[in-house]
Amino acid sequence: MAESTSPTIDRSAVWVGLAVLLVFGPLVGAGYVWDDDALIVQNTALSGWKAFFSAWTGGLWDHTPQAQHPPIYYRPVMLWSLQVDHLLGGSARLAHLHSLGWHLLNVGLVAVVARRLGCSSTAAWTSAGLFGLHPVAVESVAWISARNDPMSVAAILGMLAVSLRPGSKPRLVHLAAMAAFGAAAKETAYLAPVCLAPVLWAARRPIGRPVLGALIGVSAVLIGRWLAGVAWPPGADAAHLLASAWPTSAWAMDALAMPSVRAPGGHLAWPEPIPMVGVLAGLAGGLVLLWAGRRKALGLSVLGVIGVLPAWPAVAHVGLFGDRYLLLSLAGFALAVATSLDRATRARRLRPELWLLLALPHAVTASASVTAWQDDTTLWTAAVERHENPHTAGSLAKVLELQGDLDGAAHWYSVATMAPRPLPHACWNVAAIELKRGAPADAGEVGLRALAAGCPSDPELICPTAYGLAAKGLWTAAEEVLAKLTTRGTGLCTITKLAGSARRREVSALDAAVAGESPGWTSLAERLGLLLRSGGDLETAEWVDALARERQREEGG
Questions:
Q1: What is the C-alpha separation between 476 and 114, in angstroms, rounded?
Q2: Which residue range forms the structural domain that includes residue 539?
Q3: Among the four residues 105, 282, 375, 469, which has the most C-beta atoms within 10 Å?
Q4: How far is residue 440's CA from residue 433's CA, in Å, rounded to a whole number?
């Protein structure tokens, strides 16, 4: 039987709440990071009654620069939460407070569920503290665009709290409403029916009504998704799922079992060594929980395993492994800890204050992880330090480029385009950034290196590379690179080709360019002259100037 309310419960709740606020408080001064700019700042559908209803008729990204066709994410409740932020002023500070509020709600719900499972107050708040201060929770709290994760988890924990309430049957309408809310926040809650079953079985509580209510709510959202024409994410076919099964499982066990400073950037395309120490620690910890917590720990551990399942197709789809995918698993395993500690706390072998010592390693690493989310520069610098791969290097390069640090951007674009698997988006920028830096000769060198590393022969890479080679006087090499172009290039490719034509005195090619797309002989002569003189061909540059004057006289006469 659950213990009666006492001052110990209040003190534990206060200590847990203060600790969570202390760790996550610095986020209140943070800005928008990563996809926040596109999803929030540039989203044109966050105000007005029309937006309130249109959230249910399309995809999450429909009114952003990253709009997907067809849309693949149906998360109207997440859009509602962003609309609330916008209605209240739209500041990043307020949005971070909003996300922190959901995290605090989940911390409290973990404690409530643990108490209704019959755990002592000390065990319940210990598990709540472990959940609230675990570094895995940082991404879903710090990244506003990931708020849908704590929202969907809150719905599932709320359903458990209602279903486990002693002395009363949960109302079907309440269960269905919470399930629909969670499923409309994020697809994780599509698994709400199977999440409830093992926990209710472990607590020897009726399963039928809660599962039915969850099915009704999730089904309503699935119907809405179908009517809105939202597709399912590609890249999660059987082959991708099979390939991502083991790394997803291993990384999940390591993240949950081994407290460490976290940052985004782990990616299947650039696999890191499997963390066997974390895997073994996770397996050993799971066995200890099952031994100590028996039936209840088993049911909650099953919830933890189920919580990983949505991460599996997500990782298979985009390749990125995100800590936000593990929030429900973290709740399940934190509750399993509560059931395992219950007997020790009831026998007073664990004082209420000692949960702080158990949570201290997590609090330290979570606090260090939070500092990375202040802005894009600190975020991707931390990501490169923890996961140096083409994805994180390319992301940092783009941020530095937008901030005007062209030298730093050039370095990281070069890192992002190294063999054996360069980042395609970095391939498009690695040579062009050298032109922005005012170093056209370097564009040819880095462009050739990127092509040799496996970058595709797209105009974004070919054109600045060929231009850079020509600017260095390597005219033959420039034409060889231009020959790799599989589509029609414009801009730099055109001027480089025309420079070659001028060197061969092909007047007809220059006349055709002026008659076609070029603004006129004056502009063409200036651009050709700049490239020819940079490449050391002063004679051809003077010839082009003379030809331009001749054509202008003809046009004027």
A1: 73
A2: 490-557
A3: 469
A4: 9
- Whose CA is closest to 448, among 431, 425, 471? 431
CA separation (Å) from 315 to 177, 228, 387, 423? 29, 25, 16, 17
How far does the chain reach from its first CA to its final CA, in angstroms?
104
On whether both 359 and 393 belong to a single domain, the answer is no
What pLDDT does residue 79 have? 94
CA pair distance 354, 398, nearest whole angstrom:
45
CATH of the domain at 453: 1.25.40.10
What is the three-class DSSP state of 546? helix
Quick one: 293 and 406 in the same domain?
no
Residues 174, 222, single domain; the answer is yes
Mean pLDDT of successive 10-residue segments in the chain (557 residues)? 44 87 94 93 86 88 86 93 92 95 97 93 89 96 96 97 89 95 95 94 92 96 94 78 87 90 92 90 87 86 89 84 93 92 66 66 92 96 95 96 95 95 94 92 93 93 94 93 78 90 90 74 88 92 90 73
- As separate numbers, helices (DSSP H) first and strands (DSSP E) second, the chain gives 28, 0
In a shared domain, residues 328 and 455: no
Cis preceding linkage at 420, omega within 30:
yes
Helix axes 475-482, 440-453, angle to 10 degrees: 50
In the listed set 376, 397, 425, which residue is the last one of a domain according to the structure? Answer: 376
How much is the pTM?
0.89
The count of domains in the chain is: 3
Instruction: Write down the pLDDT at residue 317.
Output: 82
Nearest to 418 by CA among 446, 444, 381: 446
Same domain flag for 71 and 211: yes
State the number of CA atoms in the 13 A half-sphere of 182 facing the CB. 32
Rounded distance between C-alpha atoms, residue 501 and residue 519, angstroms: 18
DSSP 203: T
Structure tokens at 68: 């997907």
Taking the C-alpha atoms of residue 290 and residue 22, their distance in angstroms, rounded to an integer, is 32
Q: Based on the fold, state whether residues 422 and 506 are members of the same structural domain.
A: no
What pLDDT, on the 0 to 100 scale, is given for residue 517?
Answer: 62
pLDDT value at residue 67: 83
Instruction: Determine the Cα–Cα distance for residues 327 and 348; give it in Å rounded to an integer.
Output: 30
CB atoms within 10 A of CB 490: 11
Q: Does residue 394 share a domain with residue 372? A: no
CB 24 within 8 A of CB 370: yes
CA-CA distance, 376 to 407, in Å (whole number)?
Answer: 17
Residues 102 and 244 placed together within one structural domain of the fold: yes
